[in-house]
Amino acid sequence: MGFMRLVVAAGCAAGMVGADLAMAETTLSTRTRTQLLSSQLDVLDGRAAQQYANSVRLQPPQVEVPSAADEGPAYSGGYRGPFLDLARSAARRHDVPEDLFLRLVQQESAWNARALSHAGAQGLAQLMPGTARFLGVRDAWDPAQNLDGGARYLRMQYEEFGSWRLALAAYNAGPEAVRRHGGVPPYTETRNYVRIIWGG
Questions:
Q1: Which domain holds residue 167?
Q2: For residue range 93-150, what is the model confidence (pLDDT) as tens digits?
Q3: Contact in structure between 75 and 102 (CB atoms under 8 Å)
Q4: How high does pLDDT run on average in the chain?
Q5: Considering 14, 59, 72, 176, which has the largest number of Cβ atoms within 10 A of its Cβ?
């Protein structure tokens, strides 16, 4: 009887050890599978990130396409005289938003063809003598030539800076100031100028 108890006890102990080993093997196996899955996901995530980076890198650069929303508010000035049509024509000729250019002329000279600033800017679009020469404007006091030069100069600034807001800042403060400050220069006059013409 004592021997039988010993055999049964030994069998039970062996069974318990076997169960513990099986449990440990299952746990180890689950842990190994989890680690394997995790490492595979890391590889896939890395590949996906690299593919995304390559797809973004190989895309063509974004081009700003002007839309009505990029042109600021509509012209609402009270001037309705003969220079209005000249200004509209100059804007169309140089692919400048018409209402934007009309607001610029309103701000620059209030439609006074004989306007002369304290700095020496002349006419409707307030061209500086050096700028007029650069643009080939022979008579800055001639309304048609002045407006044509102003629209052409504004377009040149837009082509350099890619934004009508920055083009206005360059028209007022000069392109070098916009380049130096990386945006609208921190000059009160220029900031007010852009805000009045562009809005906001």
A1: 79-198
A2: 999 999 999 999 999 999 999 999 999 999 999 999 999 999 999 999 999 999 999 9
A3: yes
A4: 82
A5: 72
Give the Cβ contact number of residue 62 at 10 Å: 6
pLDDT above 70 (res 22): no
Extract the tokens encoding 49. Answer: 């990130």
Domains held by the chain: number = 1
Q: What pLDDT is stored for residue 31 in this prediction?
A: 72
CATH number reported for the structural domain that contains residue 176 in this entry: 1.10.530.10
The band of 73, judged by pLDDT with boundaries at 50, 70 and 90, is: confident
Among candidate residues 108, 160, 176, 189, the one labeled active-site is 108
Could you identify the residue written with the tokens 């593919």? Answer: 51
CB 155 within 8 A of CB 169: no
